[in-house]
Amino acid sequence: MFLSAPTKKTFLPSMEAGIALLRDFLPSDSRRLRLRRRPSPAFPRSIRASSSPLYRGPQPKRDLVADWVADNDGFVRSLPIYVGGSSLLAVLFNRTVSGIAPVADASSAQSRADLLTLGLAVTNVLAGLVWLSIRPKPISVVEPLGVECRRIRSDLPESVVSELLWVWESLSTVTCCRSLAIIYDGHCIMQIGMAAKSSANDGEAEDVDANKLMQGSLYQGIINSRAQSYLANLSLYPGRSELPFLPFNTQAVILQPLGDKGVAVIGGDTIRGFTTSDQTWITYIGEKLDAALAKYVNDSSILMQERV
């Protein structure tokens, strides 16, 4: 038996009931949830240090004990004397009050303890005297005694000259450099800063004898090792005589190799004035300067070959 198809009258009420059910289930337009875009964070185009006066990053730790010792250096050095003297007075006061005979008796335990205490007290007093007598020598900036010098080889191109002047300005501004001499390919291409007075007493600066310098042990050691040499206290090194063009009171010197063809002699006005970061930075400057000078030397040799 076949089922007859639903008529239009029976289909419409069921359809209306389904639509009504959906209306009850779904929220109306007034209650419909709306998706909102999350606002993207607005980053400033440029950040300035003055815009955030309060630094909220990690703060360096302070050692309160070390700071207090540094601020009270004299008292800390004399503290063992006070401790040792107080210990001696305490031992004498103890023997006086306790009624023990002032003469030490080896069979008495109290006498042996007092002798040990006296030995420790005397050791403290002697240590305090040593601390007071030995003080680190204060390191101060020394004004180089010499004449101002500014000598640059005339046949250098303007690009190389600007590179050399940039090296000098950078070193003299950031570090304790007061003298600079650059020897490359057997010639002194620049001598700038403070220099020793000429032996002829003509008021001029002492010339850099490149050939004599290249024959010395300092230059040969730098070229062979290709590593920077730091003479932190120049007066203690016998090689000081190989650098007569520097002021005689130059405190520290860095010898920076420029590849295998030259060296930069950097004189400072402070003992141990070049820090570890300064030495590393000077190494990079030497590599940069070596690249510029090597390019100039290669171009010059090519031009000479073409002319020949």
TrEMBL record:
Cellular component GO terms held in the UniProt record: chloroplast
A GO biological process held by the record: cytochrome b6f complex assembly
Cross-referenced Pfam families: CCB2_CCB4
UniProt xrefs under InterPro entries: CCB2/CCB4 (IPR021325), CCB4 (IPR044705)
Domain of life, source organism: Eukaryota
Annotated PANTHER family: PROTEIN COFACTOR ASSEMBLY OF COMPLEX C SUBUNIT B CCB4, CHLOROPLASTIC (PTHR34943:SF2), PTHR34943
Protein name: Protein COFACTOR ASSEMBLY OF COMPLEX C SUBUNIT B CCB4, chloroplastic isoform X2
Organism: Rhodamnia argentea
Originating gene: LOC115726587
